[in-house]
Amino acid sequence: MHFEILVEDKSGEKMLNILLPLIIGEQHTYQIHSYKGIGHIPKNLKSRTAVSKRILLNQLPRLLRGYGNTFSKYPLNYQAVVVVICDLDNECLKSFRQELFSVLDTCKPKPETRFCIAVEEGEAWLLGDITAIKKVYLNANDKFLNGYQNDAICGTWELLADAIYVGGAEKLKNQPWNVIGRIKSEWAEQITPHLDIDRNKSPSFCYFRDKIRELI
User: How far apart are the first and last CA of the chain?
Assistant: First the structure.
């Protein structure tokens, strides 16, 4: 099976480049496409955002229609699927998923697609394995790590920053957004190799892992 993975930022791409081979093994293939933010699904499902700006949800209707057309030309014995991974942020999970499926329903033909939502943010998947975090950040603040409830809507990346970044989230927030993005990518690169994918306590990570396993 071949997986086309759409993810909203570079830190997610770095995390998935490590995680996916652990889940799918060597007999399957994948390609990860990272974007420069999540954006919004266009109300009329016709994006007015330039393709070059690479905003995931703004481009999603066009992307899924393109995959539907491409997949329909593959031989019957070639299985391919699109997996869209994005953060929930402050959205309602139920209504957000309904929005995503409404986009897919407009595709003729529809590509095989799965939507996986990181609740609240991608850092929740890192916080699902505190042991992995502490292997990398030996002086991580237990107060924040032990007080975290998995997949809580709590300002997830800020909580992780408070636990492992010198000066915490307050100091990091004063940095330009590109610097924040680079540091979040560093967290993904450093922590993800230590994650135990079968013992991760993040429900949204487990949903993603299990959906991939069901497909293969």
Answer: 7
